[in-house]
Write a structure and sequence with these properties.
Layout (H helix, E strand, L loop, with lengths): L3 H11 L14 H10 L14 H7 L7 H7 L3 H5 L4 H21 L4 H12 L8 H8 L3 H13 L3 E4 L15 E4 L2 H7 L5 H6 L3 H18 L7 E5 L5 E8 L2 E8 L10 H9 L6 E5 L5 E3 L2 E5 L3 H10 L2
Parallel strand pairs: 5-6, 6-8
Antiparallel strand pairs: 1-2, 3-4, 4-5, 7-8
Helix pairs in contact: 4-10, 7-8, 8-9
C-alpha cells in the first residue's frame, strides 16, 4: 500500500503526539524509502536484530550454557519459537529471501553464483575484507562483489566492522572485517549440518567471535544506540578483536573460543593500554565458565558479556 505513509503523515500532523503508529517489517527496502520521504522528522527507527542471548535465556528456561547451541541454531525467533531444524530453516530462508527480495532488487541473474558468494563471505568471517580475492573466488567482478556486499549489509545479512582510527603515530589497517548478523545462518552457509560438527570445525573460533561481536551490536541497538564498534590492528600485528566506544574512550575486548583461560589473552589489550589509551581497562570473553577481575580488565564468559561491558563502561 504505497499510499499508506502519506496518509499516516496527515494523521500524525493532525494529532501531534508520539507513538500513534508502529510500522514493523522484516526487509522492505521500498517501504524504507517511502518512510524517509513521507515521514522525515516524524519517526524513530528501531533496529531489532535476531534474539540476543540474554533475551533467549530470559524467555526460555534451562537453556544450556554452551556456545555451540547458539552457533548452530542461530538466533532467529522462528527457529526457537517453533523448534525448527536449523538446517531446514536456514535453507528455506536463503532460498525464499534470495528469490523474493534480493534477486528482484539487484537483478541477480545467476542464483547459484550468488549463493556461492554468500558461502564465500561466511567462510571469511573475522577476516580483513579483500574484495579482489572475494571477487576472484566467486568468479565475478570487483565492482559486483562490492555491490553484493552492500546489498547484504543493507538487508541485515552481514556487516562490516571498521578499523579503529586515532591520531597516533602508527599505520593502522584501513580495510574492514566481515561478520554475519546471525551465526546460525553463517554456520549453515559453510556446510555445518550438526551441532557436533562445530566442536572440531576449523572456523569454530571465527563463529564464536562472530557471536560475541553480534551480542555487542545488539547491546547497542537494543538501547537505541548506533553501531559504534571497531577493531584495532596496526602494521606490526598488534590486535584487539573489538573496541566499544563511549565518549572519548574505547573499551578493548578480546574474544577467545577456548574453554581454558590463559593470561596472554590480555596481550593485545595491554598493548592498547600502553600505546593508545593509557590505563583503559578491557575485557576478555572466552569459551569457559569462569569470571574474574584482573589488573588489565575483566575475564567473562559469553553469558556474562553484556553485564561485564556495562561494568567496564561505567568505570566500576
Amino acid at each position: 500500500m504505497p499510499e499508506l505513509t502519506s496518509r499516516i503523515q496527515v494523521l500524525v500532523d493532525e494529532h501531534r503526539h508520539n507513538g500513534q503508529f508502529i510500522l514493523a517489517g522484516s526487509r522492505s527496502f521500498q517501504t524504507s524509502d517511502r518512510i524517509a520521504q513521507s515521514l522525515a522528522g516524524r519517526t524513530a527507527i528501531v533496529r531489532l536484530l535476531p534474539f540476543s542471548i540474554d533475551e533467549l535465556r530470559e524467555g526460555i528456561p534451562n537453556l544450556p550454557a554452551d556456545s555451540g547451541t547458539y552457533l548452530f541454531r542461530g538466533m532467529y525467533p522462528r527457529v526457537w519459537d517453533q523448534d525448527l531444524d536449523p538446517t531446514v530453516a536456514y535453507g528455506a530462508y536463503v532460498e525464499t529471501y534470495l528469490e523474493r527480495d534480493l534477486r528482484q532488487l539487484s537483478h541477480i541473474k545467476d542464483l547459484a553464483q550468488f549463493q556461492r558468494f554468500l558461502a564465500l563471505c561466511a567462510g571469511r568471517i573475522g577476516q580483513i575484507l579483500n574484495f579482489s580475492s572475494l571477487a576472484d573466488d566467486a568468479g565475478i567482478s570487483h565492482k559486483t562483489a562490492g555491490e553484493w556486499v552492500s546489498l547484504l549489509e543493507a538487508s541485515y545479512v552481514l556487516f562490516r566492522l571498521p578499523p579503529f582510527h586515532a591520531n597516533i603515530n602508527k599505520r593502522l589497517i584501513k580495510s574492514p572485517k566481515l561478520y554475519f548478523y546471525d551465526p546460525g545462518l553463517a554456520s549453515w552457509l559453510i556446510g555445518i549440518e550438526d551441532q557436533g560438527q562445530i566442536l572440531t570445525h576449523p572456523l569454530r573460533g571465527a563463529l564464536f567471535e562472530n557471536l560475541a561481536i553480534t551480542e555487542l551490536v545488539k547491546y547497542r541497538y537494543n538501547r537505541l544506540r548506533r553501531h559504534n564498534l571497531m577493531f584495532f590492528r596496526d602494521a606490526k600485528g598488534h590486535e584487539v578483536d573489538v573496541l566499544m566506544s563511549q565518549a572519548d574512550t574505547s573499551v578493548p575486548i578480546e574474544i577467545k573460543s577456548s574453554a581454558t583461560f590463559r593470561s596472554d589473552y590480555f596481550r593485545g589489550i595491554q598493548y592498547f593500554r600502553d600505546h593508545v589509551q593509557p590505563g583503559q581497562k578491557g575485557a576478555v570473553v572466552y569459551g569457559g565458565d569462569r569470571t574474574e577481575e584482573r589488573s588489565a580488565g575483566h575475564v567473562c564468559t559469553l553469558f556474562t558479556l553484556t553485564e561485564t561491558v556495562s561494568t567496564v563502561l561505567d568505570g566500576t
